[in-house]
Amino acid sequence: MIELHQRPDVILINIPGAAISTQNYYYAETGVYLYLMTQIVRPDYAVVCMPYTDLNFDTFRVIHNEMQSKFGCGLDFIHFSNVMLHAEQTRLTEKKQTLYRPAQEIIQQTKTLRKNNLPVYCALVDEERELLYQKLIKSISSEAV
Question: pLDDT tens digits, residue range 19-33?
Fold first, then answer.
């Protein structure tokens, strides 16, 4: 494992595809790449990019627990994209179809979710991206002590 042999301070990895299936008809690799990578590198933190959805604490907990059980890492931080899965069109065409939400709407939703203690950000804009970076740095720094 890289973290044991080379002992780097930080490893950033972008893993394509979905971590878990969100719909029964669109699987998006359902975590194959993520599973393989978590066998090579054990993550300390996971910043997950997910399409915009109606997220609440219970849904967050379910996704966190499923990722923890499958991959050994939960959801430490979420970047909410302004992309939404167009479920009906995806089902009809059997190909991923998306819609785009206004960034301001997503930013407002992330602020509301953070007030409810969910670690959700919208890294599409500088202010939100900086908040995400600062929270990540704070988490990593407190872990190192």
Answer: 666 555 445 556 676
Rounded to whole angstroms, the Cα distance separating 99 from 111 reads 21
7: in domain: no
Phi-psi domain of 73 (left: phi exceeds 0; alpha: psi -120 through 50; beta: other): beta
CA distance 37 to 142: 25
pTM of structure = 0.71
For residue 31, is it within any domain? no
Beta strands in 4-143 (DSSP E): 47-50, 77-80, 83-85, 98-100, 120-121
Residue 111 belongs to domain spanning: 44-144
Per the rule left: phi > 0, alpha: psi between -120 and 50, beta: everything else, 120 is beta
